[in-house]
Amino acid sequence: MKIFSPKNKVCQRGMSLLELLLYIAILSGLMVIISDAFISLSKGRGQAEARSEVNSAIRFAIERIKQDVKNASAVSAPTLGTPSSSLSVTVSGVPVVYDVLGGALRRIENGVVATTTGNSVLVEVPTFTRLENYNSLLDATTTSMQVAMTMRYNSLSTDWSYSDSLRTTITFR
């Protein structure tokens, strides 16, 4: 009969090739999962940033146009019922024109050009339509301006692609 003693045990140090391959496979799988999570987070951040930028730009542009239309004393363009890509109003005796050049919405006040949108947002051709409603009982005409505009994020990457449209009607005072 053989007696087992720790002195007779052969010491093995290191690892076998099979164990090494198993560890490498497990670590590779973890790296794939972690890198996929980082890619998904990056894509989500890009879409959120593009959405935020476009929504902010369209909201600012519409509010600026609303302010000028409500304070306008006269409307030069567009003519009644004819859609136009530019808007011309007179605010406090000063001519104000809105148009698009190179994808940027411009506000031209008394010949001074100011860009209403930044470089990160492109404006598709806006549509300004003048509307009038005549009330025969009061013998009064209400004039409104319908504004339709589409903006998109200026990026070639599909991760950052986003566009939004807005249509609103503004009544003159």
TrEMBL record:
Domain of life: Bacteria
Keywords assigned by UniProt, alphabetized: Membrane, Transmembrane, Transmembrane helix
Membrane spanning stretches: 20-41
Keyword Membrane among UniProt keywords: yes
Protein's name according to its UniProt entry: Type II secretion system protein
